[in-house]
């Protein structure tokens, strides 16, 4: 089994944390959107904000979560490519 450097492990851990944070953010946004969807004329929610503004904020939060997942995937792929290139260079030397 090949030895993996500490840097490669940290890159993998960072990618995993970005993906998990993005997924949790998406789940929070989905919960907020479903809560907003349950509002009705008889139960309009708080008077301080409109349901439309709250839905916009929840949608932007969901976009941020998807962005976090994409960033995590980019970090993981970039780290894997860097490790593969380094191993190929070590094999030729």
Quick recap of the structure?
This protein has 93 residues and is mostly helical. The chain has helices at 6-37, 51-92.
Explain what the structure shows.
This protein is mostly helical. It has one domain. The chain has helices at residues 6-37, 51-92. Helix 1 (6-37) packs antiparallel against helix 2.
Please identify the oligomeric state: single chain
Q: Uncertain regions: pLDDT < 50 for 5+ in a row?
A: none
- Mean pLDDT comes to 89
Number of strands: 0
Q: Specify Rg, calculated over alpha carbons.
A: 21 Å
Strand content: under 5%
How much helical structure, as a percent, in the residues? Answer: over 70%
Tell me the major beta sheet. Answer: none
- Sheet/helix structural class: mainly alpha
Spell out the blueprint of helices and strands.
Elements: H1 6-37, H2 51-92
List descriptors.
93 residues, 2 helices, mainly alpha
């Amino acid at each position: 089994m090949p030895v993996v450097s500490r840097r490669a492990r940290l890159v993998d851990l960072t990618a995993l944390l970005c993906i998990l944070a993005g997924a949790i953010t998406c789940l929070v946004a989905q919960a907020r959107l479903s809560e907003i969807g349950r509002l009705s004329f008889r139960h309009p929610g708080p008077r301080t904000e409109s349901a439309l503004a709250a839905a916009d904020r929840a949608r932007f939060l969901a976009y941020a979560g998807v962005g976090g997942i994409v960033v995590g995937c980019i970090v993981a792929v970039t780290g894997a490519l860097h490790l593969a290139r380094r191993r190929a260079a070590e094999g030729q030397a």
